[in-house]
Amino acid sequence: MQRLIFPVAVIALAVALVRGAVVAPAPTAVAPGPVARPAASAPVAAAPVASPRPETFTLSLTDADLTRAATSAFPQTVSGVTVSDPVVRVQPNGVRLVATAKVLFGTTQLVLMATPVVRDGGIDVRVDSATLAGIGVPDSTKAQIADTMRRTVSPLVPANVRVGTVTLTAGNLSVVGVN
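Above: the chain's sequence. Below: its structure in token form.
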């Protein structure tokens, strides 16, 4: 009898499976989505991502733009001299700043010639000459002036920009870089 029970059980199981396949609902379309993977599956490598291409940054500043920027740093007192009312003129050989200077004996002019230079991907300022009432100022005063000019110019160029060139033409200073 045991020999008969085993084949009958196998046939019954086969019939049950066939009936389930016949009466099972037809598969429905499923919207594509993320595929679930068993926890033991191998990790999937991410597709390579193209790095963003650097964009060219260009800044063009006129005499009026630079005068406005310089005005934000004035008035200031250096070595007992109060300097105010700067006027900036861009020339092909440098940037000229003329400002009113109040000294003990009256009012005179501070005249400054500076050259913007590219240093380490940023703009630096080299003070070529500085005179007060036609007399050269000490190197320590030139250094203070250069620091003030750097602080005034640096916010004009975003921190993520690497400056490549600075070009001077009459009335215009152009900065080109990449970010």
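Residues 56-178 form one domain.
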